[in-house]
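Here is a typical protein record:
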Amino acid sequence: MGDRAIKIDKVGGPQATRTSRTYPRSSIRKTVRKITGVADPSKSPPFRPEGKIRILTAFGEKQKRKTTQRTMRSLSDAQVREKLRKSKFSIGPHTPPELAKLILISGTEAGMIP
């Protein structure tokens, strides 16, 4: 690390000068982002995954279900079969269109069909 002595100040004392050690390593890059200070420099930076799992309230779940059903019901029979085929759901050629739409809506609500 460094050869400097560590100085500990009391709470309410003068502000200590900041060094690069008070910042997460990921924020020191040659990009446009600004460097932001953190409370604990040894802690890893926040992880933001691409596919987030959202926990919905009862109201949010109801709204999402309504939106999904409205979107799926407006699709034609050929579009429904194409979406199911892309999602690797096998339905027979003689499956009634209402049943195919129900499978598509249920699978979308469950998160099995994107």
User: Anything to note?
Assistant: The chain has three helices and no strands. Residues 58-110 form one domain. The radius of gyration is 27 Å. The chain has a mean pLDDT of 77.
